[in-house]
Amino acid sequence: MTATLELLLVGFGHVARRFVTLLDEQRGTLSRKYGLTIRIVGVATRHGRLILPTGLEPSAVTDRFTHFLATVPAHREMRTTPELIADVAKRRPATRDGRLVVVETTTLDIKEGQPAIDHVRAALSNGAHVVTVNKGPAAFAYHTLDKAAEKAGRRFLFEGAVMDGVPIFNLVRETLPAVTILGFRGVVNTTTNYIITEMELGEAFEEALRAMQVAGIAEADPSLDVDGWDAAAKTAALANVLLEGRITPQTVEREGIGASTAVRAREARTRKRRLKLVARAARVRGGVQAGVALEELDESDVLANLEGQQNALVLHTDLLGEIAIVQRGSGLTQTAYALLSDLLTIGTGVTGRTLDGRSRS
Ligand SMILES: NC(=O)c1ccc[n+]([C@@H]2O[C@H](COP(=O)([O-])OP(=O)(O)OC[C@H]3O[C@@H](n4cnc5c(N)ncnc54)[C@H](OP(=O)(O)O)[C@@H]3O)[C@@H](O)[C@H]2O)c1
Q1: Atom 5 in ligand 1: which residue has the minimum CA distance?
Q2: How do residues 40-86 score in pLDDT, each as one tens digit?
Q3: Does this model's pTM top 0.90?
Q4: For every residue of 185-237, which 3-state class applies, written as one string?
């Protein structure tokens, strides 16, 4: 069976723009292997909302939206973004047969995960699936949104919230049946790992941070990275999903990095140790204990050898001991891939194919 998925893009910054070019690059594979065609039916950002009733090819969206922003006079849209999501979902026939997907890539809000949580809720309650790379929904409201998705018979997927396209949530959900995750530790923030390793080599803090901003990898507000908030949000998301935690980024003990971290990092290196910003969480009696802190690690530790933009997560399990997942390169393509892989999970559900492209009998 073949199908057309309709996408409403909520947020159209670095990640979403790379996502639409990736959809174009993968067009042949999507069609041949998965029987899927993609149409963009709307783009909503703070500065403008463009609804595309007949849908547009992914390749045409960036130019069309840029032209729209440049030519349409000051934005007079009165609806909030959740209202717009609800309206689009109600109008599109694709919603009824589970072919409308809201792609949520708005800015991370570390205080309460909004407005992303409201975007996810509006999508699910009006019959759309959601894929997101925003950490807020899983870090602040995972259990509520997961229940809402189940009730609606739709998917709420967020693989890119942690370690970009490297499967963490999918890995545990799809390939580790009967395994209990007891805890984890990891280096999960690319910007701080890059800065620490650059400072070990003599680079200044501000220069290293600027490189991450130029690459579109640092958060829009870079203090979210350097103060440890991004790592705390990922820790909360991982703990809520994998450890059945009920925590938020605010309840994660947190430490960040600064220019003075350089001295500690270089000094540790002279003793054959590496300084890393480590995220940890474990099941404890009555809940989950979680924290983000600078730790000196022995050179033999898998986390100690992560250079530059590399990330890793070590899962502690009951049946398999430790499982380490290492990401050797991260960037916008990897984050956009996370959205693509979640989209394929939804798309193959619609067409009745498996992820290796076969028909489900
Ligand atoms: N960049 C990465 O490498 C990376 C990696 C993993 C995860 N993420 C996550 O992905 C998300 C997007 O990152 P990004 O780098 O693409 O950010 P970005 O370039 O700053 O883009 C954010 C987009 O969200 C829009 N937006 C913000 N509030 C909105 C609202 N209330 N309604 C509609 N649109 C809204 C912005 O609109 P305007 O343009 O009108 O302001 C902008 O288009 C963030 O949550 C981030 O944490 C990013």
Answers
A1: 335
A2: 999 999 989 999 999 999 999 999 999 999 988 665 677 899 999 99
A3: yes
A4: EEECCHHHHHHHHHHHCCCCHHHHHHHHHHCCCCCCCCHHHHCCHHHHHHHHH
Pocket of ligand 1 (CB under 6 A): 10-16, 44-47, 81, 105-108, 115, 133-135, 160, 164, 216-217, 219-220, 332, 335
How many angstroms separate the alpha carbon of residue 55 from the centre of ligand 1?
A: 22
pLDDT, tens digit, for every residue of 5-48?
999 999 999 999 999 999 999 999 999 999 999 999 999 999 89
Ligand 1 centroid to 12 CA: how many Å?
7
Give, in order, the Cα–Cα distances in Å from 283 to each of 32, 38, 117, 139: 44, 41, 25, 16
Please give the angle made by the CA atoms of 261, 237 and 250, to the nearest 5 degrees: 60
Q: How far apart are CA 101 and CA 256, in angstroms?
A: 36
In one-letter notation, the amino acid at residue 21 is T
**3-class DSSP state for residue 13?**
coil
Which of 17, 46, 189, when mutated, tests ligand 1's pocket best, judged by the most ligand atoms within 8 Å of its CB?
Answer: 46
**For ligand 1, atom 18: residue with the closest CA:** 13
- In 3D, which of 291, 311, 293, 289 has the Cα closest to residue 302? 311
Where are the alpha helices (H) located in 98-204, listed in sequence order? 116-125, 136-152, 169-175, 190-200
Are 243 and 316 spatial neighbours (Cβ–Cβ below 8 Å)? no
Q: In this structure, are residues 89 and 100 in contact, taking their beta carbons and an 8 Å threshold?
A: yes
Residue 119 to residue 46: CA distance in whole angstroms = 13
Maximum separation of any 2 CA atoms in the chain, in Å: 64
Residue 105 alpha carbon to ligand 1 centre in Å: 5
